[in-house]
Amino acid sequence: MPDSAAEPPHPAPHFTGLAVVGAGPAGLAAAVTAADGGLDVVLLDAADEPGGQYYRSPAPGLRATRPEALHHGWARFAGLTARLARHRDAGRIRHLAGHQVWAVERTGADWTLHAVTGPDGEGAATLRARRLLIATGSHERQLPFPGWTLPGVVGAAGAQAMLKSGLVLPGQRVVVAGSGPLLQAVAVSLAAAGARVPALVEAAGYGAYGRAPRVLAADPGRLREGIRHSAALAGHRVRVLTHRAVTAVHGTERVEGVTVSRLDRDWRPLPGTGRRIDCDTLAVGHGLVPQLDLAVGLGCGTRCGADGSAALVLDESLRTTVPGVWAAGEPGGIGGVHLALAEGELAALAVTEDARGGTRGRDARRMTVLRRARRRMRAFAGLMGAVHRPGPGWTGWLAADTEVCRCEEVTAGAIRTAVDDLGAGDSRTVKLLTRAGMGWCQGRTCGFPVRELAGCAAEAGAPDRRPLACPVPLATLARAARPEDG
Ligand SMILES: Cc1cc2nc3c(=O)[nH]c(=O)nc-3n(C[C@H](O)[C@H](O)[C@H](O)COP(=O)(O)OP(=O)(O)OC[C@H]3O[C@@H](n4cnc5c(N)ncnc54)[C@H](O)[C@@H]3O)c2cc1C
Predict the structure, then answer these.
(1) pLDDT tens-digit profile of 34-81?
(2) Distance between CA 403 and CA 212 in Å, rounded?
(3) Ligand 1 centroid from CA 285, angstroms
(4) What's the gap in Å between 328 CA and the centre of ligand 1?
(5) What spacing in Å lies between the alpha carbon of 52 and ligand 1's midpoint?
(6) What is the tens place of the pLDDT at every residue in 381-401?
(7) In whole angstroms, what is the distance from residue 61 CA to residue 253 CA?
(8) Is the CB of 255 inside a 6 Å radius of any atom of ligand 1?
(9) What is the rounded CA–CA span in Å between residue 251 and residue 257?
(10) Is 140 in the pocket of ligand 1 (CB under 6 A)?
């Protein structure tokens, strides 16, 4: 049962030494390490169970007997959750599951965190902490194409999440497409779970990894993972098509097939190369994007990552540019579960050092090891980002009537009119003229494509700015503005 059920609707602000937002691999590793070091920790997560995206567990009601069957490295997760339980029982960690933090603000020397709770977000919680660690992970990047709004088109990472948490397949015959190493994991999981996967369609080419042999050699684990996935794909008879993309989806009520076209090196479709593949589902994604709303709201500095998306500027101790705020895992750039685990532990040791005003010898040695591992894994992450960064020619897939902003139903044609005829030179002006990005998701899905269509060089890799990290009921906002009434 999540702790949220036991929370009063408006608990008095609870003070804690360290607040960790996000209980994925990074946040979980951070929370237990900080508690080991004697800090009083609160771990908040929007989900009901810890584990984040990688260690996503089947919903308890499904009574899965072997949840580890869909995961690699489950023993590591089991070890972390056992430590979490021990610290929770000893009162060193409060785990607030089902708490989605919508804003953090500076209150004197502390941070005040505001969260919504409960299935409809009608509950609220506020707490204060001296130090803050942001481990909010990432979300999937989508590039639109003709037909992507048809039922049967799902996110590739979303399909993986559906399988891990709901134990269901998105379809029987699934084409997996887009770009990035996650596609291989998704295709293998779907095929192993019984789906027919006729093709994995990758817009980039894996050969580009070979141009950085030293980076590859420094991270042999990733190389082994790639080989393991390739062997599994071959075993399941999944055709791997590189330098290609899905440029159209066919079907009236739902997906019946897709057209796959060859791309040039800039991801521009080559005319006359389209081939149809029959399928009932398309699982598509073009990498992941760091989840930065809370950090950007606090003024943390960002940089443009090799994959073209914004990531936090962090030092060797994973401090952000705002004193008192650390970050670990995907907010610092997309890099995978092992990097997230190492960064979570490193950030917690750095916070503990800050709280104590010094480091114990054993912790200092551990930090040296973790920093070395982090540099190696970050180098590989940079290579991965550069290889799979969307080429500028992807906009050649779009037809005038392709919806780019699904929430507000704004088409590529309308955005091009705003840019070419009405003089919009940046995505904010496009938004004001067309409403693209004004809907429920607040531009999380369409932000990247709208920026690319606006063609404003200064916006490349710039972070989105959203004062609220998730939808918040007006009543909750009003109470947060006048806490004495709560
Ligand atoms: C949908 C999806 C599926 C993925 N599946 C795989 C996979 O199968 N294999 C693989 O190798 N990699 C997968 N990844 C990549 C994976 O996320 C990372 O490798 C790894 O989990 C990163 O760990 P993390 O702790 O940085 O982030 P995450 O695991 O994403 O954890 C972040 C946590 O923060 C919480 N959170 C975010 N914002 C808030 C907020 N405002 N308030 C409270 N809580 C918040 C989230 O609920 C989440 O639990 C997936 C990514 C996504 C987006």
Answers:
(1) 999 999 999 999 999 999 999 988 877 777 777 777 677 889 999 999
(2) 38
(3) 15
(4) 12
(5) 4
(6) 999 999 999 999 999 999 999
(7) 31
(8) no
(9) 7
(10) yes
